[in-house]
Structure formats: structure tokens, C-alpha cells
Amino acid sequence: MPATTEPLWRGLVDDAAIFPPGDAPLDAALAAYREREEPLVGAFVLRDTDLPQVDPGPPLAVVLTGGAGQVAGPAALATRHGHTLARLEVALRDLDDLPGNARRVAAAVDAARATGDLDDDVAVHVELPALPGEPTHGWLAAADEVASAELLLKLRTGGLDADAHPDSPTLAAWIDAALDRETAFKCTAGLHRAVRHTGADGIERHGFLNLLLATRRAFDGASRDDVVATLEERDGAALAAAVTEDLAGARRWFRSFGSCSVSEPLTDLDALGVLA
Fold it and tell me: Fewer Cβ in 10 A, N or C end of the chain?
């Protein structure tokens, strides 16, 4: 498999091999992660319920299976067992009160930091629900709470069903919302490939290179239509040529994405000739 040490790509892909559709066994996924020496790969993503089965070593991105009340426990467990905790990821589930849900998460994070269970340098990503269309008032108010608490966002860009894949105007609106609040984000699901394409199942899938370029252009003040067009670009050569834009600046905002495949993103970047 090709390799890269280019800072632009470093840590871009979080190894989510144990999540659908990969569903790799935890032991096998961890063994593969430890054997892999590829700077493109960032943290190993696992559920908080998996923590007791993991030996210290790899940087971990821990997905909380509960809400705000479950922040302190996994953080304390990771600290006690000597894990390298790169980030916590928590989803907002109270659709009737998203801002209040975000405030509860922020309060739980503050409490865990105050007790020393959660280090200040551990990033906390708050996943807002993937509602179709323009962000609702509640969605935007929750994003305000995340930004005010100096937490980060998590955006869901795919899944097993077609409905789990936001259309380009919706994703462009999410990017705008994050940048308007000067809040970095990570993405999850559906971004195995660099370039937008139609999957074998007929589902439209976003490309992570499209998303990087769209983020940069949105930050530079591009119109919503231009950002949408970037997200929908299917010409890999055109996207590769645009890598000369300041994508390092885009990484300030679009930090990483979780993928159950590490080889596909790296192979795509190599095929596009952008790793050198």
C-alpha cells in the first residue's frame, strides 16, 4: 500500500474498522492498526463499552453510547488505565431541545475536566443530528452552544441507508454553520473515497477531497452554489489539480473523518497523484 508523510494528509483518516459496514472484530482491527505505519491514519475509533477490552497504546477516539451523563465515566476509565485519549465523541439525541442537550454535554465536559478525569487537550466532538434541508433554528442554536463551550462538531456524511447521506446543499449549509462559528469539525461515515461517486448500491456518496476543497472555498467566501458545485464535482483530475489551493488551511477546520477502510482513501490519493 502507498504511504505518505505529507503534513496535509497526516491524521486525516480515523480508523473506524469495527463500525459498519466493515464490522471488523475488535482484536483484529486493533492488531491491524498497530501493525500499520501510515501517517494518514489518526486515532482508533471505538465505543466506550469497548474500553475494558483494549490495552493502552493507540490514540483512541471514544464514541459515547450514552448522552451527557456518560462523559465522566469513560474519561475516568481511560485515564485510570493509561489510555491515550485523543477525543470523545457524543451525539445529541434530544431532538426537542437540541440547545439544552448541547448545554448538558458542555456542563458534563467542564465537570470532567475540573475533576481531572478529562484532560484539557482531549478534543470533544458533539454530533448534531443529520436533519435534511437547511439547519433548523434548534440545530443552529445547538451549534452556538458547542462553539460557546469551545467544543468541536461532528457531522454525519453517510451510512448504510440512502437517507443517511446528506445532499450537497445540506452538507454545504453545515460547513457554513461550522465556519460561521469558527468551530472545527470531523465527519463520520460514507467518506471512503476521495471523489464523489455513485456506489454500487446506487447511493450518492461524498468524496473527502471534495469536502476538503469545499471547506477551503467556503472559508474563502465562495458562494453557497460554488460550495455545492465543489461537493458535486466528479472529475478526480480537476480535484487533484486544485490541491494546490491552501488545503492545509482547510485542515484547520475539517480535522478528520472516520472510515472503516484505511486502504481505500490512501489508494485513491495515490491514484490521483497528490501524495508526493
Answer: C
